[in-house]
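pls ignore typos typing on phone
4'-deoxy-4'-aminopyridoxal-5'-phosphate + seq
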Amino acid sequence: MGWGPNKGRHAVPNMTHGEGVYLFDDKGNKYLDWTSQAVCSNLGHDLPEAVIEAAEYQMRLLPYAYGDIGQPEVRTRMNQLMNEILPGDLRAAVYPSSGSEANEAGIMMARRYTGRQKIISWYRSYHGATSNSSAATGDSRRWLNGDSTPGFVKAFNPFPLFFKPGGQNSTEAEMVESSLVMLEEQILNEGPDNIASIMTESVLGAGGCFVFPEGYMQGIRALCDQYGILMHVDEVMMGFGRTGKMFGFQNYDGVVPDIVTCAKGISSSAVPMSMVACSGEVLDFFEDKSIGWGSTYQGHPVAIAVSYENTKYILQNNIVGRVQAIAPLFESCMQRLVEDHPCIKQYRAIGLFGCLDVQDINGKNPKLQHEAAHDAFFEYKKEFIRQGLVGLHRYPHIHCAPPLSITEDELIDGFERLDRALDVLDEALGFHSNH
Ligand code: PMP
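k done
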């Protein structure tokens, strides 16, 4: 895909404004935002008044302060609020401007705290586009970085899509066990004393909505404790309510990481903003030391003011509870698409985050038939837009992640539009739909 105005073959509309879950283009078309942009515009496209006022107030009061010279007052309030919502003894530590930077800082902190270099992460993962965060990434976007950033080890997490460790009929419990056994083998072969952190998304986001099965995250926590490795959970996409919990890792009983990185939902992406939180012990370590990462815009007062009010809004309006309440409808609509569309192999969903896996007529990943699949997805994407939807596409997954503020009627309307777009994908992949 190119960077020109039409992004290669995929012409994108010129958006003029937004309202709720909708966006409008310069031709007067109205689109339902099916993936909250990059799973980040969590409150939709018109912000609560308090958020706008906070930005304006902070811009007039003190638009910028460099953290090492003087902290803006709003940062103290933000720290307090974050420390209230973070479980265990997790504490807010740094506020960079993007998810990639937060991961960059989290990786540096793990290395400096442990005095070790290696980072273990998954093949099925995305952690960002800067050098270390891209090297931690497992999906193909990391290839562009080549092997220029040493110290990153990849492991497989226990997820079947077109691959199951332990064989096609293995149960979830067996997969968890074999994945953890393999992981420990890797730790021992890499040398436990060389490994700074194990880095994982709480629920795989771009990689296709994989919720880790029972026992897996607890197993990682135990391996980290056993070998003195820090557990770094990347909440960039799942944090701030997407899964029906404030943080995605709260879906796994008893798991509290040592480092947590957030972005996107912390400000609903109205301003660039992210956060690194860490355990009190790690934070204390850095009391008199640099974390080894910094940027001019970290702790930006306006970004913090917006994120503070955004978080208050999420809490006061019980957005997390709303996500839990609408999740069963979301899931039943996804199930329906699996039943109605032969090109959809299966779905996975948690909260307001879901994924449909597309299959070819042989039940395989259509991407293996590269050119034919490319054309089929191109036809589908055109229909998707014609149906009045906009969203990110990462085939063979079709992500469903509308704003957390979506109503039931809007959600049903969105699924009906998607249903019609999938008729075209069925056809383009050589199936006949069940309609
Ligand atoms: N981690 C995860 C889990 C993400 O989904 C993303 C972005 N999609 C990032 C990190 C990188 O964040 P950013 O694009 O803000 O740098």
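Residues 291 and 300 are 18 Å apart (CA to CA). The chain is about 40% helix and 15% strand. more later
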